[in-house]
Amino acid sequence: xxxxxxxxxxxxxxxxxxxxxxxxxxxxxxxxxxxxxxxxxxxxxxxxxxxxxxxxxxxxxxxxxxxxxxxxxxxxxxxxxxxxxxxxxxxxxxxxxxxxxxx
Length: 103
Known about the structure:
Helices cover about 40% and strands about 0% of the residues. The protein has helices at about 10-25, 45-55, 70-80.
């Protein structure tokens, strides 16, 4: 290891940089959501609301969700064992993809 890396001055500079980086991360910390999945922060509340408002007489509810919501909706459906909530796939209301090829 080079002798310049062992000097007390260099070690203090390293410690200062580490403290600044840690402070930067701490300042950005959020306990309600992770920045990458911010849209997914209230999925549990949405699913709980859906369960409260559903028609008890209807055999199945088919949610229409965008691709971002598909995995979390299906996760809660599976984990909670809700048979009344249909699989949330990427299909149109008719059950298939729309035509994309020109005729």
